[in-house]
Design goal:
mainly alpha; single chain; 58% helix; 10 helices
């Protein structure tokens, strides 16, 4: 898989500047999601917001794309796999266990055919859904912005997704070891009132920019 280190090329100030430059609307979307998801992933209001947030983030490509109204049933099917991944974050994928890889495979199998109308969700849609459902612990969402930052090609399978998480997690480890600080500590300097999980922070560093 093509990959070029990105995080380890940044200084701490450059990383904070990247966080400051993240698209504000998408940050508001995230703040609303984290608050609502505390009521349970299968609560009707949470399911509705999951659908609306994914629709806003445009994971479903093509003229007939759109988020399925039945996406709530897919969330229900993900719960055993999400429970098995409790306590797992992006950092865990520096050296993922076979069990963690299997759970990502199962999440892919559930989400890939269940998010988008008339098309598979692919790496963009599945990674966006996983980031939402894990409240940002496992991320980033691998859209064109993030893939471009890391020099990555399109994610076509669960194996590709695990390899992407692993490469990004290694890059993150190298940045944090070199600078002797975590990205959560840096994010708190930029967003002191927010508690943002590691996968979402990486998503914000490489994600869409605020328009001038």
């Amino acid at each position: 898989m093509k990959f070029q280190p990105f995080l380890r090329t940044l200084t701490t100030e450059q990383l904070k500047d990247s966080l400051r430059g993240f698209n504000r609307r998408f940050h508001r979307d995230w703040t609303c999601w984290v608050a609502e998801s505390q009521h349970g992933l299968t609560a009707p209001a949470t399911v509705s917001l999951f659908q609306a947030t994914l629709k806003s983030w445009n994971p479903c490509r093509g003229p007939k794309g759109g988020v399925r109204r039945s996406v709530g049933s897919a969330i229900e099917c993900t719960l055993p796999h999400l429970r098995a991944l409790s306590g797992v974050s992006l950092r865990s994928f520096v050296d993922p266990s076979p069990q963690q890889c299997e759970r990502i495979l199962q999440l892919w199998n559930v989400l890939n055919p269940s998010i988008c109308c008339n098309t598979d969700a692919g790496g963009v849609g599945v990674s966006k859904a996983i980031m939402l459902l894990t409240n940002g612990e496992i991320g980033p969402a691998l859209d064109g912005n993030v893939r471009g930052a890391f020099g990555m090609s399109i994610i076509n399978s669960a194996d590709d997704l695990v390899r992407a998480y692993s490469a990004i997690a290694t890059d993150l480890r190298d940045f944090e070891d070199w600078n002797d600080i975590t990205v959560e500590d840096l994010a708190r300097q930029v967003y002191p009132s927010d508690c943002i999980a590691v996968g979402r922070i990486v998503d914000m560093i490489g994600g869409p920019r605020e328009r001038a």
